[in-house]
Amino acid sequence: LTSDLFWKTQDDVEAAKATMYSSMATAMNSNFFNWGEIRGNNWGSNEANGITQDQLRTHDIPNTHSTTRWTDLYATVNRANLIIKYVPKMTVPDKDAIAQAYTMRALAYFWLTRVWGDVPIFTEAIEEYDVTTCLKERRPQSEVLELIEKDLETAEEYFPDFNAIATRPLDRTYLN
Known about the structure:
Blueprint: H1 10-38, H2 51-57, H3 71-86, H4 95-116, H5 131-134, H6 141-158, H7 162-167
């Protein structure tokens, strides 16, 4: 599908959100444990480790190690960027989807900078390969943290007001 045929219906938005969440789930499947617990010295040498966990624990990590790939996190970033680009242009923009996209982009960048420190920043959707847009230098961690904070503030603007939701009468028609 091309972008002029997509981004027309709420089903398109739901599909885009599903792919964004799927890429984050793929990135975090084993890496949540590997990037967090093992690297944080919460896993001792007495524990039953596999070779990959031992490499992480001892900081002897070859560049072929599964935890050295950031591609799934950047897939999440790009899918969030697509939502941020196209959903506001829809006839009825889904503000909640926009809020979720900013939140997921912030979460992906949190993990990117937590694991790698300085990382490239992409805030525009990449829809076709072009070396001038796809290859970027690493930006200082402080810039990445600023982006995360800005994205979370923007997400907060799009999320519905919790008090308005909490005080709204409960729809009980589904109980009948």
